[in-house]
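User: What would this chain look like folded?
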Amino acid sequence: MSEVEKDLCNPSALREAITEVFNTMVFMEINSSGPIEEDLGDQPCILGSVSFRGLFDGSLSISCSAACAKEITMNLLAFEDEDEMEPSDIPDAIGEVANMTMGTLKTMLYDRLGEITVSVPTVVSGCSMCNALRAGEVKLSATVAVADQYCVQLNLVHMYSGGKA
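Assistant: Here's the prediction, encoded as structure tokens.
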């Protein structure tokens, strides 16, 4: 693994990026003590994903329970009451958190990775979601605890492309 790929595969970079987004835009605390157990079982989850292209191609995804997604939306959009929320606000908010996290990571790694082009976020919901790796892909996962109550799972899947954005 090259030094550049080690930078991209560094779980602390993922945690630093999501912490910055949550501290500055979502106004929810990422617990430094590590993840807590949130039993998602067959609960619906929300997954926001952005793809990227550059020296490495791949995607960054953020997934959480529907309850966590609702809290993130309330904070990000500064809603005082749940009744203010439209059904489309939750996927919009989760997509934006994924986008901001990728943007933060992109800025952190720019000196090492060069220009990275980022897609528009995609958001899906469902139960027991997972992704399968293709040959040559590497997956990095990190779980963070949010507000002493929820878990947010981050996945960075990438493959060396050697290309430019």
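The first strand starts at residue 30 and ends at 31. If you want, I can go into more detail on any region.
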